[in-house]
Amino acid sequence: MECLEEKLKGLSVARRSRPEEPTYLLHVALQPTGLLAVGCSDFSVHLHNRDTLHLVGEYRGHAGPLCGVTSAHGSPDLLYSASADGTVRGWDVRRPGTDAVQVFKSDPSHSYCSFDLSCSDALLCAGTEQVNGEDSFLVFWDARKPGGGLLGVYSESHSDDITQVCFHPRDKDRLASGSTDGLVNVFDLSRGAEEEALLATCNSDSSTGSVCWSGADYTQLLCLSHDEGLHLWDLGQLDTEEPLTVFSTADARSLTPLADGGGVDYLVGGKWLEEARTLLVVGGKSSGDLHLMGCDAGGLRVLRSLEGGHASTVRCFLWDAAVEALVTGGEDAQLLLWKPGGVELTTGKKESMKSDSALRLKSRPHQKHKYQKEKKVKT
């Protein structure tokens, strides 16, 4: 942790990118080729140079809000995005501006609000919004089939919008899902049928915002809720009598005292930093200031505060371990690269750029609170 703190202390803005048209920057992923893929609120995906942040291309094809972007692990030229328009699309990063090379669909009534790709690149999974006021689905495809080989769905484990699906970084058959129904489920897909595949159900008592795997062997699961709750569970305790909960709070904002005596306004997300063996949680202030925190059984601890970068809420971040740099994007339409000892070529903070297209993103917030506590396991 001390070594990580020293690295974070040196972070400052090295590069800044602003699009010509104002748009929220919602998702960011790093391609094996060194490109940054950014999902935007105008339904487009932008490609940026990793070092300069220069825009090198974009893709348009989705007709609804994006719910994520991710790269293929073994195919460096393949990028995926998913959307509420009911499609998951695969793009060739060597040919910016071209049509998708793969399109995955399921039932026409399905609108996706989360998706992920397995570490083996074999499986794609998307979580749907609630359909007809009753059901929500985990949809699976064979990602290796150009025609979009639909494998099937899980339909019994969630009762509301599935806001997060997250494959295990090392186990191709392990999948976590989170929903506005308050449940976080863990599956072993090698077991086949949904009932047999469901390993554990943890209850966050709130609408799930994000989920990520963490811990030395990725046996822990971090859940952040839409109302800024934080829960850290240890799934390595499933076969023991020990409780799963490592740390839990209904409101993490009050646990992060800052220099001004207040706390963070919101949580952006979490990321396990393998080399530093630290679970990094990023929070922010509505002013655009960022706060990098370590999370463990003792709760949250501020490691570094980053000021003078963004002008409004930050929506996504990425830790680039290879160069020990942080990439952030947000509602001010800015993409920032923070590097140790970074010196920005141009100065000045961009004012918030909130366009009509950006504001459409907020037309359907995930604020439902239906819980199924009877499915709760020991936590």
Q: Mind describing the biggest β-sheet?
A: 4 strands, antiparallel
Helix content class: under 10%
Overall pLDDT metric: 89
Beta strand %: 35-45%
Please compute the radius of gyration using only Cα atoms: 20 Å
Mass-distribution shape: globular
Offer a concise description of the structure.
The chain is mainly β.
Could you outline the blueprint of secondary structure elements for this entry?
Layout: H1 2-9, E1 11-17, E2 25-30, E3 35-40, E4 45-49, E5 55-59, E6 66-71, E7 78-83, E8 88-92, E9 102-104, E10 112-117, E11 123-128, E12 138-142, E13 149-154, E14 162-167, E15 174-179, E16 183-188, H2 194-197, E17 198-203, E18 208-214, E19 220-225, E20 230-234, E21 245-249, E22 266-273, E23 278-284, E24 290-296, E25 299-306, E26 314-320, E27 325-330, E28 335-340, H3 356-359
Antiparallel strand pairs: 1-28, 2-3, 3-4, 4-5, 6-7, 7-8, 8-9, 10-11, 11-12, 12-13, 14-15, 15-16, 16-17, 18-19, 19-20, 20-21, 22-23, 23-24, 24-25, 26-27, 27-28
Task: Describe what this molecule looks like in 3D.
Helix content is 4%, strand content 44%. With 379 residues, it is mainly β. Strands 1-28-27-26 form a four-stranded antiparallel beta sheet. A hairpin with a 5-residue loop joins strand 4 and strand 5. The longest helix is centred in the first third of the chain and has 8 residues. The radius of gyration is 20 Å and the shape is globular. The protein starts with a helix and ends in a 20-residue tail after the last helix. The C terminus is likely disordered.
